[in-house]
Amino acid sequence: MKKSRYINGIGAVTAQGIWRTDFFTESQPLQQAVNAAQQPSYRELISPAMARRMSRGIKMGIYAAQQALDEAQIDIPDAIITGTGLGCSEDSEKFLRNILDNDEEFLTPTAFIQSTHNTVAAQIALRLGCKGYNFTYVNRSVSFESALLDASMQLQDAEATDILVGGVDEVSDHTFRLLQLVGHIKPSDVHETIHDSNSPGANYAESATFFTLSQQKTAYSYCEVQDINLQNKLSQGDLAAFTKEFLERNGLHAGDIDALVLGYNGDKEFDGWYDIFECIFPSIPSIYYKHLIGQCDTSSAFAVATAAKLIREQIIPAIIQRNQVTLDRPLRNVLLYNQFRGEDHSLVLLRSC
Amino acid sequence: MAVAGVAITGIGIISSIGKTIEESQHALLSGTHGISRIKNVETKQKERIWVGEIKYSNTELADLLHLPAGHNYTRTAMLGCYAAKAAVDALGGCDMGAYKTGLISSTSVGGMDYTERYFYDYLENPALYPYITTHDAGDSSHKIADYLGIQGLVTTISTACSSAANAIMMGARLIKSGRLDRVVVGGTDALSKFTINGFKTLMILTDELCQPFDQNRKGLNLGEAAAYLVLESEDVVQREHRKPLAYLTGYGNANDAFHQTASSEDGEGAFLAMRKALTVADLAPSDIDYVNAHGTATPNNDLSEGRALQRIFSANMPLFSSTKAFTGHTLAAAAAIEAVFCVLALQKQIIFPNLNFKTQMEELDFSPQTEVCQASLTNVLSNSFGFGGNCSSLIFSKA
Which residues contact B319 (CB under 8 A, 6 or more apart)? Predict the structure, then answer.
């Protein structure tokens, strides 16, 4: 008997601040190429001495994770599964600079210790004393979706009852400068929102978004995670068939989907994928979110948070709706689609519960 | 009798003891290690450390892979492509599109070997730009998937030195759940100045040949390697008339939740991982005939792992060895190359020795196997532990 998977808690640290009830009404579209997250006070969660040694990614991850656990009223989950595209980039850069600038002399281990990709998941486990399964996926824009797939499989097969799953990526100076050189990030002198974007590249931002996924439905459950699919390569011509096959294996047709949450990031060369995707469906509300929280490899985790909130509240705030279609029926099935530069495609299906 | 498990139908490997299964097996049986002074990485630590380095330059690797001029394959990606291709070729010509096929790879350094070379030069030299996007850990997996022609579920795991064990575990679960029919799983890591200096700051590198499980062990030798396994569903095995090399019957991952880089004294994480793997395989500790230990030869690991083994097996410790003295510690690839060694051990009914061992650890009541020996092997267990308290165990069973 396959078990269900409910989202019972959400936490986030983003360029618009932390996850909260008024998140969308208090948000402003980003128009800078590189955006830091608005950092909350970490004092209650992390001692100041430890916080000084930790990169923002670790702190953001710990904060978002705790928010997600608190909302679900879970102390220690059975498993912790994270995704990160670039990992602990700040500490990696710091250690590498020390090697290069000091010709391999006078090195200290802290930055190296914290540079491994699984540091965030490990630090959360250490803090909670969680001895369960602990995985970190690192595959560009499907890093979070890989973690979500893993968590879903474990809940479905009753290998765990409560799982903490999340995505986190931090800004680091040099790496982001290099990503500007290759055009992934817009140049610093371009100030466009996704809505106004007329250029290649995206506005980037750091973020951490975590979820408590549980077998049990509670009074606080946002929605159910129905299915996830990942695909490294796809042609635009095959996108419709890829989507149709995914819907069919879930007993659905395009007409059963009530809203779309899409990964538009303002990169004029690749946002066309989402235009094609929208055409697969009849006229339904289309939602975006990266204009608020920016692009990073794991920002698509925020699509899940966005959709979960919409399903629970049954309202679509104007700031995240991309088209003009009015919601004329209950939001039951919401489909999420994300890709990055035409690769690492993911579909996530959420359902009201 | 273990559960049916997931069939392993192909294996491929490249490490400092060989670029083929035959070369690796020959080295293991003749007790020939692959530890030497480093040649391919420019580092000041050159004369202070011994490493398990693959003696092919990047140009030679690119030639072996027939990569076009102007390619942007990092060393990590090239080693991965080489070993993964060998694993798939072992199937004897197969159409990657014929079944739902995926790739679960793993790496810890990713493209760091090029990042550390061009970190500042990138800003000045646009000709180097193609390497900028090879820095992230997912790059090598994309390259391997493209090289093999895999389109589908492709992802990467990075949990430091247990990475490949976790990739193998996830692959097996994807087959069991029916989401995939076939999956290529494993890991790849190239030596880099970054990891050499990182491990040096932790003071866990020895300036001699490493001595796993020896009372006087001084630390580890780093190495580089890649290895991949092809896992296939029972349905594919039947339809393609495969003869499985072995079965993956058990797997478990747990967290030590003790320290970011050090293992707990009682080996709690390792103990939990082994216990989970035994439960998944539905085996008792007494069913395990051989343990391929993580055995990095650091004072901390071998004590922690030794205690965990003692807790699992009590007075009935099976034969065990660490093969790290042959290859060095190959980080994210370690569990994959050791998975290949376990498959070979099951196929040949042979245990590979723990080199450089002299004195039994005073905290333990057992010593590793130091000579090649014939043994009746049905189930073997392989351990891999990483930073962040990450502990993984895999159980392989005779086909």
Answer: B289, B290, B291, B351, B369, B373, B375
